[in-house]
Amino acid sequence: MLLDPHAPEAETPHDAHPSLDLSGRWHCALDPEGAGELDQWFRHGLPGQPGRPGQPSELTLPGSVQHQGLGDEVSVDTPWTGSIVDRSYFTEDRYAPYREPGNVSVPFWLQPRVYYRGAAWFQREVEIPDGWQERDVVLHLERVHWESTVWLDDRLVGSERSLTTAHRFDLGRLSPGRYRLTIRVDNRTVVDVGPNAHSISDHTQGNWNGVIGALSLTATPRVRISRVRVLPDVAARSARVRVDIAAGGAGAGKGSVRVSARRFNVPGEHEAGPVSVGFEAEYSRDLGERGLTAGGAHVDVDLPLGDDALTWDEFQPALYDLTVELVTEVDGREHRDTAGTVFGLREMGVEGTQVTINGRRTFVRGTLESCVFPLTGYPPTDVDAWRRIIAVCRAHGLNLLRFHSWCPPEAAFVAADEAGFYFQVEGPVWANQGAALGEGRPVDAYLFDETRRILDAYGNHPSFVMMAHGNEPGGRDAEFLASWVTAWRTYDPRRLYTSGAGWPAITENDFDNIPDPRAHRWGEGLESRLNGRPPETRSDYREWVESRPRPIVSHEIGQWCAYPDLDEVSRYTGLLQPRNFGIFADFLEQGGMSDQAGAFLQASGRLQLLCYKEDIEAALRTEGFGGFHLLGLTDFPGQGTALVGVLNPFWESKGYSTAEEFARFCGPTVPLARLPRRVWTADQEIEFDVQVAHFGAAPLDADVTWSLRDQNGAELGSGPVAQGVTIAVGNGTRLGPVVVPAGLTAGPAQVTLAVTVHDAAGARYENDWDLWVYPAAASVDVPASVVVTSDVEEAAERAAGGATVLLELGADSIGNDVALGFTPAFWNTAWTKGQAPHTLGVLHDPQHPAFRHFPTGGTTDWQWWEVLHGAKAMLLDELPAGLRPVAQPIDTWFEARRLGVLLEAKVGSGRVMVSSLNLDPAGDRAAARQFRHSLLSYLAGDDFAPEESLEPDALRSLLR
To answer: Matching InterPro entries, A to Z (predicted)?
Structure first.
């Protein structure tokens, strides 16, 4: 396994340093007992197959050992990295088949084909070419998980433990010839950053072991450029270039730095410079074992970019390619080096309670990237992979990715720079669930070290606009993070800083990333806004804006679940397997509902999308608000299995939502209607205000109109809202009120209100809201042919005698623990310890005659809120398997109970409709009255002809 010294050297646009690519086949051995160092494997060679007797194994680097099949079979004793909140898997009988050796399946995250935690050794021979002996040789390992130790022949070079940046080892000056290079990687917890941190956890990427990305040996000059930082000045249309110079030997010298730049990535060429600055320096060298540079020089160069320089943002991502040339003379000998970087003329700021970019107010529309890559179990390091992810986000109207407790590779920043896309980067820390900050633990120093590494490695990227230390800390976090924010904002002022994602909200923050301003907060259950209050589109978070002097970017909004897409299983062709989906499919089959999986996905998904729309619009309605982070656009495979995305973990559609539909309510320009209600009667005028959330490149001159359409898209009415209005950048443009005259439809009807902004330049922005119009006086009188009762015994007796019965079961009479809500489950019931609601909407056939006078689409929509609020689901497990309810709540996939809120059956010679919905018609409950009217009309008509029969005891079972 000899590296060919005559192979073509790797080249990069700015790097004149000759290098050798180390990718390819390596010897490998696993070392779970830690014997390798004691037995000096670096000296004697690797002992055999992965940690076991036999012949040496080989694998390919870059890569991980697990992805290439090295590791142990998963068992119930696998030492996972990550918290398991619901531990019923280890004790309950229903999970017993999945605990059997050889057939272990876990329900709480994706499961690797093999698992390994411990040390792994990689070894190969390399040959140093002629001509490198006057240079320092550096080993570059782009991303390691996570502690690496390197030997060259028998010499220990050193160790690195960054989870965020490349591991670099100075091998010193080497004579041409052959050497044995040994790398030991340990993926055990080196520092307690928190068991659920996405940088290390089995919840997401998995605790992989190996080296990914670029692996190379590079020959560097004796005097070289060690770091280039670019500090743009938008007002002056210039950039200060800060150049650090390192020396590979002692001595005094002088030199010059020459800086130039050219613009690319947007139409039109533009060049700046060159500008040269001379300097003198004293160089010293630590002559210890590693031969590290101990001294150098620093030069600042101000580079005017010209009055026609273009700024960088999401609308115009103008990039500049910077070249730095160094010429030095040390002790009479000349040295040359060249380096470069890409930057954008971009400045982040704060204006009151809003974020600005280049002085213009913007609105953060973000989602999380939690290091979820099921095929490999580790993040991609190629630019194309990240271009695809960013393109999907942009198509959905988003402008930011938040990297939850991890930092992406260089390729992600490159792709974001090109696209004009924003990043919130975090340190690899979620110091909670046993870990903590500010208590003198090793994680404190580690966080500071990692922050410096992140800023030095990626700080020039204009896409890197925000930073938090990590996620949701514990300990003495406020005190500790106050110093963290202050220190790093001083060190690198090119972005906005916040203490942590989630908390704490401290005065030192540039913005607060807090979880309170959202439609459903942790623990609110059925008291959250969408579950506890009638639907409207006026709610916003202005009280939160008024309570804070800084911008608020709301933390992890949404978290609405959809049912598992069981057809998705075939996509998992790599390391991580959805064995959890297999368990859920079995539970569904045991409940007699396996044929409904696709319908459950569709129905729950449409409800999920409806909730995301209202969540996002509430944020956009809030004047002075900073933005939001979704959790998330994609499913989160861990923490019990949190299927909260409209996309799967591969960033692909799940079939019930499109990017175009999502972007109507999530984008730079979104029309908004502030409606006091969703349900109207035909004699009421529909009155609302119009608001435009416009965070585009410039103000708009536009006409704004409204229209009301029926379910087929035919226009019922339309009119102007405003003509020739200037819409400023922001969300303060309020228009109206608009009054839609009564009587455009007599009802009952579902109608769509659309608001359209027609830009003078020809652009068109439209958004819409479903409304329901019912007759003003829907009768709820009980027909003479129908018996209405809330008593099961009376219902059984009357039906047995041939009567038609509506049995109304109140929530207090039903004894099960299923929490029925309007919204789908929040995050997932396993991780939240069963927080309400437990259901994911109500599946029904919209063509069923029971809904003839209550228009519905087969999924839960806003007109269902009144009848679901205060209702209770019935357990149907003791009913005949063939009986499908007329309206069926979808249970959490961890339980897969057969539920109903409306069912019909023959009892004796009579017929019964059983309802556990809230059909109280009193007060301002037009939807409940209409539903009751539709139901009674059905029961009194000839269509009421149930096919299944029930015994009286079966009716009694519904009270459980």
So the answer is: Galactose-bd-like_sf, GH, GH2_Domain-Containing, Ig-like_GH2
